[in-house]
Amino acid sequence: MSPIRSQLSLNLSAGAASVSVALVLVVVKLWALSATDALSIAASLADSAMDLIVSLGGLWAMIYAARPPDEDHAFGHSSAEDLAALGQAVFISVSGLVIAAAAARRLMSDAPPPLAAQGEGIAVMLLSVVLTVALVLWQRRVSARTGNRVVAADSLHYLGDLVPNIGAILALWASAQFGLSQVDSVVALAAGVGMVVGALRIGGGAWDALMDRAADPALVAGIAELTRTWPGVAGFHDLKTRTAGSRVFVHLHIELDGDLTLRRAHEIGAGLKQTILLAYPQCDVIIHKDVARD
């Protein structure tokens, strides 16, 4: 299997695992919410529902972005990942605001409703923590091997879910042991705010990509260093990058000896391009050859 196909297979496996875990958590948290009436579980349920939407969108985006360039999309379809992420950020923000508002109203209430079936709710949230940890470990392994930004962002999002999940467990325990039902609202309020903050981060990254923001400075510096030290290259200029989904598009002008044969000039450019792709497989590289100044 080619490296590109292997990376796609790993990315899709991470996406499918994310969808499966989110679906299981939505079902069990729906049951837990009906049994406990805990806002902290409602917040966690909303977050899992958003996770399901995010995961489905991410999986679709990875499949669509993997399509090769065609007549209408000469640079490929990787911007689909950014469009999906931007839409997901809007959904997550709305959900977080609704949860935070409900928690604030319950905190200000003179007689907040009591919680029930705390033991069952704790069991469900423990299951949620175990599944989330297993998913994050797999996503991080895949992201480390493929460099896929969608998988990395999804992993970071699920890692953030651990905080409200653990908070929900503490809230249910405090309610069962000490009758402190207000802890549930505090946890839900924090979870709602966290969802909004996370959505702004995801949306900001997607917006930057859609606006053709330059790639990570460390990546640009790495490409510059490879070019500067490549045999036969007398100099370079106009190194430009832009991001689109998990892809980074690189345009580079290298300066060569004007007396080189066309074949030799091509070999230098092709060798440099292959080296850049080996170091940064997420890149799409175009190299233009100029005559070096005397």
Give an overview in words.
- There is one protein chain.
- Helix content is 71%, strand content 10%.
- By secondary structure, the chain is mainly alpha-helical.
- Strand 2, helix 8 and strand 3 form a beta-alpha-beta unit.
- Helix 2 runs parallel beside helix 6 (182-210).
- It is elongated.
Low-confidence stretches: none
Major sheet size, sense and barrel closure: 3 strands, mixed
CATH topology of the largest domain: Alpha-lytic protease prodomain-like
Number of helices: 8
Supply the CATH superfamily name of the largest domain: Cation efflux protein transmembrane domain
The tally of beta strands, per DSSP, is: 3
Overall CATH class of the largest domain: Mainly Alpha
Strand order, biggest sheet? 1-2-3
Mean pLDDT, rounded to whole units? 77
Binned, the helix content reads over 70%
Element pattern in H and E: HHHHHHHEEHE
CATH architecture of the largest domain: Up-down Bundle
Count of spatially separate domains: 2
Structural class: mainly alpha
Computed over alpha carbons, the radius of gyration is 24 Å
Quick one: overall form?
elongated
- N- and C-termini, Cα separation: 46 Å
Beta strand %: 5-15%
Summed up, what is this model?
With 294 residues, this protein is mainly α. The chain has two domains: 208 residues, Alpha-lytic protease prodomain-like, CATH 1.20.1510.10; 75 residues, Alpha-Beta Plaits (2-Layer Sandwich), CATH 3.30.70.1350. It is built from eight helices and three strands.
